[in-house]
Amino acid sequence: MKKLLTATAATALMAGTAFAGGHGKEVKIGVILGFTGPIESLTPSMADGAELAMKEVTDSGLLLDAANVISVRADSTCVDAGAATAAAERLVTAEKIDGIMGADCSGVTGAILSNVAVANGVVMVSPSATSPGLSHANNEDEGLFFRTAPSDARQGVVMTEVLMEEGLKSVAVTYTNNDYGKGLADAFQAAFEAAGGTVTISAAHEDGKADYSAEVGALASAGGERLVVAGYVDQGGSGIVRAALDSGAFDTFHFPDGMISAKLDENFGSEIDGSTGQHPGTDSDGAGKFVELVNGAFDATSPFTPEAYDAAALIMLAMQAADSKDSADYKLKIMDVANAPGEKILPGELAKGLQILRDGGDIDYEGATAVELIGSGESAGNYRQIVVKDGATTTVKYR
Amino acid sequence: MDFLNALVAFANFVFIPATAYGAQLALGALGVTLIYGILRFSNFAHGDTMAFGAMVTILFTWLFQSWGISLGPLPTALLALPFGILGCMALVLFTDRVVYKFYREQKAKPVILVIVSLGVMFIMNGLVRFIIGPNDQRFADGERFIISVREFKALTGLKEGLAFKTTQGITIVTAIIVVIALFWFLNRTRTGKSMRAYSDNEDLALLSGINPEKVVMITWLIVAALATIAGTLYGLDKSFKPFIYLQLLLPVFASAIVGGLGSPVGAIAGGFVIAFSEVMITYAWKKVATYVVPEAWAPDSLVQLLSTDYKFAVSFVILIIVLLFRPTGLFAGKSV
User: Fold this and answer.
1) Domain tally for chain A?
2) Do A203 and B279 lie within an 8 Å CB cutoff?
3) For an interface test with A, which of B153, B238, B281, B303 has the most A Cβ atoms less than 10 Å from its Cβ?
4) Which of B35, B46, B139, B277 suits B251 as a labelling partner, its CA being 20 to 30 A distant?
5) Nearest-CA residue of chain B relative to A220?
6) Which residues of A touch B144 (CB under 8 A)?
């Protein structure tokens, strides 16, 4: 009996040392996205993007001790903070994930960050949460939160530039009544007014209603040359556009990131010809490489899909740089691998990056979206400007 | 000053939408009021009865569309409507047999029946979501507009446009036909008269040989037809989503109570009172005002009494005012 006890203790001790080094054979990354809810048409390709990076790393066999990277999906619902927190809690406590690729919408991301990620000390890299409220200037996130999407403070400025170049001086704004919509609408209004434009009205709309004619009535009354719809394409945003078209209140619109998807063309087609918009995106070498890499397996140009690939890649590269899958260790390395100096790494070159890091070198991860993390760890922001022409969204340029 | 443009803007954003919405509420409220008048309880399952009827109609619409049957410029849903009504009738007769009949025989108090109807509501709501899913369903086809903004502007040369959707036109026409038919039935036919007699005084009606089970059955059949028509029209005009009908229950009840529970005329009046006040109080009058007042007086603000978020609050405020000052409603129904 005594022998058995010693043996057990010894085994446990050995196992303990092995794990303490952070060299488990398995790295689990939680993919928490809104697979149901207002952006459900965007999330499948986002998750595929993240899992593509994980597969690439697993196949290379270079991460830590040839670790196998496993993706664990969970539903953030995009809007229900309680459900999202519960889902994330389950991944952290039951699945014992080593990092979170997510969440997607700003409200649930903030909820998961404060209730789960900070409480349990898990790194979180969001591909699409863009609320300015998530910029942690005073280290409230304990250095755990990063995002490969830019803050909407930046999007507000880009939107202003696009509209000013179109020669529009007065616009009406409607936003979905949540952290994302309010944050973006406020950021835009500040930037637009600073540039000499007028926002005639900035009114919220609730998602999930059948009828938006009353909201559109107020917007029409306020007037403006174009209607900015800071909403979701699978939700009230489309309802607002439909009601505005039906009542003839507005002919052209401006769409930020939440509205741009294949669904928009499908819903409205050429009815919204001449409308403009922008969403995070880049024409850097990485973007083309990423499309090649995906090779038609899923929609590589869908909003936030390249960002999701980059978010997952950053987590794994930082683990390699820190030589540990412990969040407390690798959270310090994310900014290092994302920014200069070092060898530039593009999509499909993760193996090269892992090898350089293993050899003690330095990398500058460019990825699919020309990743450059600034401030408290958020993307500096490149945007793809679009215009609706003959019923299809087409790229004008990148800025 | 430009009264014509003001009038067009008013019609486009207030009058036409509010009339269509009012017609939908009136049809819904008629169903509620009939149940209250004859079966003597507030049927909270009415919103979901509407959703169920609309759902059956949608399923048949899709079937017809897949067969290539259409009504040309009119939506196919009109053709599917009779089947939706039959489906809804089957469901309400089934719930009456299985649930309400038991409580009727027990002579249960109205408040118990209200709670029972609440349970029925949850089951129907689950059933609808189970069959068709919780998402938006689009089933409107045919011509979208009787007159669109562009056509109107080209026709009149006015600065303001006017849109009149086919669904809005159908809603109003159907509501008028249904209301006329219902009143003819209640006032002119033997069955209708026996229903009113049963509603006025149950004991006297029974003594004069009216069969109560038949009255109850006819009531349910009429209510199912009204609910399906109201639900389908609402879904056609706006969009079909099961939860929307749960929310619609509130203005529908407000309409029935404002008009006077148990009074069919009241239900119609109540529907329009609620619809017009919801739309007019939350509408921003700046555009209309700018046309009407002299230029120097043109308002800078939106001239909006309440933000559109408070749409439902308006119906409740009216409801409270009516209950405080005229508890029997505008058309003296039964007091609540």
Assistant:
1) 2
2) no
3) B238
4) B139
5) B287
6) 246
Q: Domain containing A178 — which CATH number?
A: 3.40.50.2300
Residue A2 lies in a domain: no
> Looking at the domain assignment, is residue A394 inside a domain?
yes
Residue B271 pLDDT > 70: yes
Residues in CB range of A208: below 8 A, 6 or more apart = A235, A236, B241, B243
The range of the structural domain enclosing residue A209 comes to 153-280+383-398
Residue B298 lies in a domain: no
Q: Are the C-beta atoms of residues B330 and B256 closer than 8 Å to each other? A: no
Q: Is residue B325 part of a domain?
A: no
Chain B contact set for A211 (CB, 8 A): 21, 238
Q: Which H or E element spans position A276?
A: strand A276-280
Pick the range with the lowest mean pLDDT from A45-49, A159-163, B303-307. B303-307
In terms of residue numbers, what domain contains B142?
Answer: 18-246
* Residue B275 in domain: no
Question: Is B27 a domain residue?
Answer: yes
C-alpha dist (Å) from residue A155 to A42, A106, A205: 19, 14, 20
Q: How many domains does chain B have?
A: 1
Instruction: Tell me what the mean pLDDT of segment A298-324 comes to.
Output: 90
Q: Residues of B with CB below 8 A from A36's CB?
A: none
CA distance A214 to chain B (A): 6
Do A233 and A299 have their domain in common?
Answer: no
Same domain, A186 and A118: no
Within 13 Å and on the Cβ side, how many CA atoms surround A184?
33
Q: Which of B17, B234, B243 sits opposite A208 (nearest CB)?
A: B243
Interchain contact, A214 vs B149, CB within 8 Å: no
Whether B148 and A220 lie within 8 Å, measured CB to CB? no
Indicate if A166 and A267 belong to the same structural domain: yes
Cis peptide before A103 (omega within 30 of 0): yes
CA gap A316, A70 in Å, rounded: 11
Structure letter (DSSP) for residue A336: H
Q: Are residues A129 and A179 in the same domain?
A: no
CA–CA distance, A73 with B50 (Å, rounded to integer): 37
Chain B residues whose beta carbon lies within 8 Å of the beta carbon of residue A203: 307-308
Cβ distance of A218 and B279 shorter than 8 Å: no
Residue A184 and residue A66 share a domain = no
A268 in the same domain as A302: no
Nearest alpha-carbon partner for A48 in A69, A28, A31: A31
- ipTM value greater than 0.85: no
Taking only the tens place, the pLDDT of each residue in A221-244 is: 888 889 999 988 888 888 899 889
For residue A3, being part of any structural domain is answered with no
Per-residue pLDDT of B4-33, as tens digits, reads 888 998 999 899 999 999 999 999 999 999
